[in-house]
Amino acid sequence: MGFVEQVSKDIDEVFFDEGFFGSKHSLDNKEITVIVDEDAVEEIKKNWRDELVKKPVLLYVKECDIERKPSVGSVIEYDGRPHIIREISKQDGVWKILMGRSGN
């Protein structure tokens, strides 16, 4: 097994494993395993000055689990509530999505 294959296997079997970092959440009405980075959100909150966006959430989602390509400014439903995507990037088949709710 080569390096790329090993990284892909580790992403599936370690990082997104519910026994390690993964947890089940609903994203656009589909239950998937994601990684919620609460530690990074605390740091982001200190620097995020946009008062219109509340309760920031930072997720890592496997590309294969998302049915549509997310983009900044689009609305995505997370655990039954609409969130606006504020920042997004993808690396090694994993989306990093920073989003927040509008208003309350």
Description:
It is a single chain. The chain is an alpha+beta fold. The chain has two helices and six strands, in the order H-E-E-H-E-E-E-E. Strands 1-2-3-6-5-4 form a six-stranded antiparallel sheet, with helices on one face. The longest helix is centred in the first third of the chain and has 13 residues, at 3-15. The chain is globular and about 45 Å long. The N and C termini lie far apart (49 Å).
Tell me the span between the first and last alpha carbons.
49 Å
The count of β-strands is 6
Helix vs. strand class: alpha+beta
Largest sheet: 6 strands, antiparallel
Give the helix level as a range of percent. Answer: 10-25%
Biggest sheet strand line-up: 1-2-3-6-5-4
Question: What is the helix tally?
Answer: 2
Q: Give the ordered list of helices and strands.
A: HEEHEEEE
> Which oligomerization state do the chains in this entry correspond to?
single chain
Shape: globular
Task: Give the overall pLDDT as a whole number.
Answer: 83
Low-confidence stretches: none
Q: Rg to the nearest angstrom?
A: 14 Å
- Estimate what percentage of residues fall within beta strands: over 45%
